[in-house]
Amino acid sequence: MSDTQPNTDTRGFGRKLADIDKTAIAPFLALAALFVLGALVNPSFIGIDNILNVLTRSSFIAIIAVGATFVISAGGLDLSVGSMAALVAGVMILFLNSAAIDGNFAMLAAGVVIAIGVGAGAGLVNGAVTTLGRIEPFIVTLGTMAIYRSVTVWLANGGSIAMKSSEMRNLFRPVYTGTFLGLPIPVWIILAVGLLGAFILYKTSFGRHVIAVGSNEDVARYSGIHVNRVRAMTYVIQGICVAIAVVVYVPRLGAATTTTGMLWELQAITAVVIGGTALKGGVGRIWGTICGAFMLEIVGNIMVLSNFVSEYLIGAVQGVIIIIAMLVQRTLQRKG
Amino acid sequence: MTSPSATQSTLLPVLEARGIAKAFGPVEVLTDISLTIQPGEVHAIIGENGAGKSTLMKLLSGHLQPTRGSVAMDGEDVTLTGPVDAEHRGLVLVHQEILLAPHLTVAQNIFMGRELRRGLMVNDREMNRLAAEAVRKLGAEIDPTTTVSRLSIARRQLVQIARALQVPHRVVIFDEPTASLTPYETEALLKVIRNLRDQNVAVLYISHRLPEVGAIADRITVLRDGKLIATRNASELQPVDMAKLMVGRDMSKLYPEREETATHETILEISNFDVSGYARDASFTLRKGEILGFAGLIGAGRTELLEGIVGLRPGHGQVKLNGKPVRFHTVRDSMAAGIVYLSEDRKGKGLLLAQNLRTNLTLASLQKFTKGPLIERKREEQGLDNAIAEFDIRARRRDLLAGQLSGGNQQKLLLAKMMLLDPSIVIIDEPTRGIDIGTKEQIYKFIADLAKSGKSVIVISSEMQELIGICHRILVMRSSRIVGEVAGETMTEDEIVVYATGVKTNEAELYATGSA
């Protein structure tokens, strides 16, 4: 509304503040605020066990959302990640149950490779159809969302696909429940995926091309960038991230059901947006995204620990969060 | 020519700036401007980019509020609360940018927000009729049911003007209306403006093109660095004097000394090149060290032909580079072969406006700044240092976004970006559109230096003076075909217009069939 009055005392400071990109730090401030809120609501929230537990549970969404950061930064959208997770989990478990290879460990390793292959393939389908078919990603991934889900239901015969071998289950379980140097394995995996994602997005030419394509496709094309290839590749990265999330998810329950991954797309997109990535593309924030995934899980946790709001309303609260996040983003951008 | 009322200052000015100033934060961009606009007068505002013309227009049309001073209409202070309020008072601004809904028709755009109704339904037939008439008044024939996205930029501009003039108006402000118009279209627009003046409408006219300002204006106000330098009767000012007042120095040498840098060695040979719907059967050669111009009206197919040749759009025909036949399937192929194309659409196709200078600079040649898959930030920064020095890019801060630069500096950044590819052929489309005179001079010198260093340059431009000023040879296109070539003695505006408008049809057709 008003230009700040020229005030010689604060101008230097104000200038410095203005230099910091507010959309980049807003998610971290919000996360800190949630911690304070949580501690006030219930002191047990701030306990290290509870926090690590929350982080562990946020891992699926955090890992998937890192992939979504690539897709959205490049100006795309992937609604199929939840169904894709179910499909990848289903195929992986079916393979583990087949006992095709001798030795449980080799079997597991092959299972992981297959999961990643299926994820990458499913992502490639999304990428190829959007770019070669020149169809809006919203429509394409709406379609594949239905396809992947339906194929999973068919594979599961309408029920669930469970890991049969208890030996294999025991071998696999630590991936979700185990710890390393005091931190749960899933938290390590989030860190690794985040580091790799940040490296690719910020330090490599591919990452630069992703931002360029999302920023302005025409400029990218006139600059000699393979726009379609870059676009398609972001969907493949998304698929691989989904597969990694599945590798963390399967040992938790040891089964894939028809509702596995339900509404994950909503949560992943929410995490990306509250993390400060622009939904219209051209800006990508990996660590903001991970922060956003934590926030979603923490909000749920606080609701469970407090008695003010029924935890059945978690979905509603998350919906409110994404809308508020967009409003905050817009206000910050307008000021900057 | 000058209407009698313009010279009489006894009339009450319909619009007046009374010592207005505007500051954004601590920076004052406009200082104590006082000027009057009389009914039946065309008052031109000229000045370099950043001189404060657009800010002044926005203050006078209610888009911005002054920090000091006031705006008066009919001699009384008014507070214009916004563009709608201004329109109610009969004050209309024709924006420089095209603000139309691309998917709606011409008529729907012209009547947007004030649709004619018949009962509950919109009266399309009446709106189409009136829209066609409004466009015809501007000297053009456009089918009112065409969707705007299918029109050329120039025609969209006309639609926008037609739309603005639908409002009952006493004062019309034109913000660089001819920036994307050809001489022919410009002449039609000037006729419209003269008509307005004859109806006692006051016109405020902003333009970079000084000859046309001289032709249309009754009075001229020159701005420089946010200050009013002079207000004079147009009859007292020659374009040269205007330029001098604008930049505060002598501009008689806008174009560099012409040097015969063109060799006899043919570097590029195009034969029978077609770009479906835009260019037919185009053949031409480019020599090493030559500056070759492409003239023609907007829509003649110049941009599309060259985009087709470099692989930015599908095209067919023979391309020989250094005597060897080549095919460019994508623009990457032509870049790799040493040909770069700088789009006329700097903001839409040239630069990522929302990204910083460094990202923009290295985008097309990123492989030169990487080690393995890794981008080396330090080398990029060094590249930016070099570019800023070599191309005289003036940015307040290094971390500005490309969209925050002035048009001239954007063009320099785009040049720097493409020159990093180390091309042997540089194609520049509308090199100085929307750029101030000082920067124009720099860009002309840069183009001349490129030729001097043995590179070949193709310049597409709608400003004939500029082509004549810097090119060794000019090809003229009309309706998708190359219809003429001018060089040496014949390189005059008249000669080009004759080809571009098809006056010499027979000769032109002869030429096109290959008699030369």
Description:
The complex is a heterodimer of chains A (336) and B (516). Chain A has a single domain, classed as Orthogonal Bundle (ABC transporter involved in vitamin B12 uptake, BtuC). Chain A has 16 helices and 4 strands. Chain A has helices at 8-19, 22-41, 48-57, 59-73, 81-98, 104-132, 137-155, 166-172, 174-177, 185-203, 205-215, 217-222, 227-253, 264-274, 286-305, 314-335; strands at 160-162, 179-180, 183-184, 255-257. In chain A, a hairpin with a 2-residue loop joins strand 2 (179-180) and strand 3 (183-184). In chain A, helix 4 (59-73) packs antiparallel against helix 15 and helix 6 (104-132) packs antiparallel against helix 7. The two termini of chain A are 13 Å apart. The model of chain A is unreliable at 1-16 (pLDDT under 50). Chain B is an alpha/beta fold and 516 residues long. Chain B has 4 domains: 1-90 and 170-251, 3-Layer(aba) Sandwich (Rossmann fold), CATH 3.40.50.300; 98-167, no CATH class; 253-338 and 423-516, 3-Layer(aba) Sandwich (Rossmann fold); 353-421, no CATH class. In chain B, 34% of the residues lie in helices and 25% in strands. Chain B is built from 19 helices and 24 strands. In chain B, strand 4 (68-73) and strand 5 (76-78) form a beta hairpin. In chain B, helix 5 (124-137) packs across helix 6 (153-164), helix 8 (210-216) packs across helix 9 and helix 14 (377-391) packs across helix 15 (407-419). Chain B is globular and about 70 Å long. Classes of the chains: A mainly alpha (336), B alpha/beta (516). Chains A and B meet through helix 11 and helix 12 of A and helix 11, helix 12 and strand 20 of B.
